[in-house]
Write a structure and sequence with these properties.
236 residues; mainly beta; 1 helix; globular
Length: 236
């Protein structure tokens, strides 16, 4: 892409359901300059217009869920706003190689993965916010040492009490059944599920991920997806 040297990533989020949010789209640009603020645009089908939005406050609840924008993938904030410290190594049970194309859950509240659990080695990293008014005092992140994906996070409030945990399920791209032909040779771990447990409010938000395929896509197709002037076409 022509602007690739200046951008770390572009993120596209669009909703097909439920009906009241169908057609909403959010595009975010994260720049290579760590001190440059993110840019974001959204399309609201009720207003029928594209507008620029501020995404600098990343610590607010996302759409009433138990996750913030900063919590994506256990951390999607800007590194310069945090202090990081490596704490050591731990072996933990997790679902890093799901045996299903789609999420299987069980338990009294239906929030426990009914899947293949394995014991794996993790690097434990603590991050603390530099902003004094941030709602978190610290976050423990657990990074898998085989593919370095962040599997889980334990989040503490300003008083140092456990507030939330974020845990993920992953599936290897080559193991999918429905997208076996499409994923041949991709060789990546795919997010299949996020469970955000809020212990202080005694509730859980479950984010199942549908569609584990990796289609080939051209530069022109990518340009079309991230074209700010075409956001209103998403729901069509």
């Amino acid at each position: 892409m022509p602007d690739s040297k200046d951008i770390i990533y572009k993120d596209f989020t669009g909703f097909f359901s439920p009906f009241d949010v169908r057609g909403e789209v959010l595009i975010t640009y994260r720049y290579s300059d760590p001190y440059r603020a993110d840019d974001a645009w959204t399309y609201d089908p009720r207003e029928r217009r594209v507008r620029r939005v501020s995404v600098e406050v990343k610590s607010d609840s996302l759409a009433g869920s138990d996750q913030t924008e900063e919590d994506f993938n256990t951390f999607s904030g800007r590194e310069v706003r945090w202090n990081f410290k490596f704490l050591g190594w731990r072996r933990l049970l997790c679902v890093m190689d799901s045996k299903f194309d789609y999420v299987h859950l069980y338990g009294t509240n239906g929030n426990v993965p009914n899947d293949a659990w394995s014991l794996r080695r993790f690097a434990v990293v603590e991050r603390k916010p530099r902003e004094p008014n941030h709602p978190y005092s610290s976050v423990l992140m657990f990074w898998d040492t085989e593919d370095w994906h962040p599997w889980a996070a334990a989040i503490f409030d300003r008083q140092g009490r456990l507030w939330k945990t974020l845990t993920y399920d992953w599936r290897w791209s080559e193991d999918t059944v429905e997208w076996a032909e499409m994923n041949h040779g991709v060789q990546v771990s795919s997010i299949q599920l996020l469970i955000a447990d809020d212990y202080q409010n005694q509730r859980t938000t479950i984010f199942p991920v549908f569609g584990g395929g990796y289609p080939e896509i051209s530069i022109s197709q990518v340009s079309k997806i991230f074209d700010i002037n075409r956001l209103e076409e998403f729901h069509r």
